[in-house]
Structure formats: structure tokens, C-alpha cells
Amino acid sequence: MKKKFLSVVIPVFNEQETILKILKKINLVEIQKEVIIINDGSVDKTDTIIKQHTYLYDHYISYSQNKGKGFACRLGISKASGEVIIIQDADLEYNPKNYHTLVNKYLNNKNIKAVYGSRVAKGGRNIKPTGIRPYLSKFANYFLTKFSNILNQQNLSDAHTCYKMVERGLMQDLRLEQNGFAVCPEITAKLSKKGIEIHEVPIDYFGRSYSEGKKIRSIHVLEAIYVLLKYNFPYRGYKSWLRG
Hints:
Spore Coat Polysaccharide Biosynthesis Protein SpsA, Chain A; seven-stranded mixed sheet; two-stranded parallel ribbon
């Protein structure tokens, strides 16, 4: 069997409306890849839908209790065997067609080990839901990215994007710890501590509303700040500060 180049790790929790659609989109991307799905305790029909379409993925891990995106990502990363790993949310906010853009950036320079897909860089399509929330989210992402850049000495425009493509050996060597959404800033901080320069490419982004299943909340901003501090200035007091 020909070795797969890209390992696509998909953590999923209660995405019965989108899981089949995103798997079909991934399947259409013409890259040698393996698809690894981690069902993070879904209580809707997600598990049933996945099991009915086994031809769309290579590995499936499922457990009954929701443990968080970071926990699910760690399981998928440990299972990966491709040259590079990318995280893919199970909704439709990110466009798998953009894999080519990230992969081309990686292949065009042998010194590149990590490529992020930026939702704000010029060149990608960006469609937001209506209302004030998208503007608040944009401000929060801007602030967290600036904060991350200062601490991690990077020059990113979108540090908290889902599309983080990293060499498999490097990603597995990060020894990730965070169970929730804070795994995102953890990856950036730990790559930076290893002296890895993170490169970016523009990607498409189709934001969804809470009514459509959006799971990120305001508390996750505080968690991101805590994690950025934790891995840059290790001090146990930050955890008690976060909890108030």
C-alpha cells in the first residue's frame, strides 16, 4: 500500500448535520491521505452516520464520554502515520480544498515544518454569520494572536486557526496536554519553544452561528490566555487565577 502523505485528524462532537458533508469534501481532495476520525462522545446520530460510511475514512476511534477537542486530537495524532498532520474540524467552516495551498507551501521549502491556514490573510474567502458575535470573535482573535505573537516571538495573522499543518514527528513530539480548545494555543506555544518558525497561507473560512452548532465561547478566550502564559512562564498560580 502506498504511504499516505497527509494525515487528516478530525475530532467530532455532535455534528450529525455536517460530518458526512465534510468527509465527502475531504475525500474529493486529490492528495495521498489518511483520514482519522475521533468521535468525542457524541450523543446525536454522528456515530451512526460515520459507521454507515466507512469508505470515507481510514481509522475511527469512538468513546462515550465527551473529553474535549484536545483529548480527541491527541488520540488522532498518536494514530497518524503520514508525513504531515492537519487538524480538521467536523463542521463546514474550513474548506478542505485549501489543503493544496498548505501542502504546496510546505513542499516548496525543505526548511518549513509548520504551516498555518490564515482566515484573515488576503487571498481567501471569508463569510461570516450575521449579528454582533462575528465582530466580537474577530476582535478576540486579533487580541489573542497579538498576545501569542509577543510571547511566542512569531509573526502570525491568525494564531488560533484550526488549520495547523505540522510534520508528524514534530507534532507527536509536542506531547500535548490540553483537553479542550486550548490545545490550539498550546500547539503554537510548544512549536515556538522548539524554535520552529510558523508559516502562513490564506484559506477560506465560512463562519457559523451558535444556532448552527458553534461551540467556542467567551471562557475559551481566558483559557487561551492561561495556556499561553503557562507554556511561556510556567507558574502554578495561573490556574488558580483562571478559576477565580
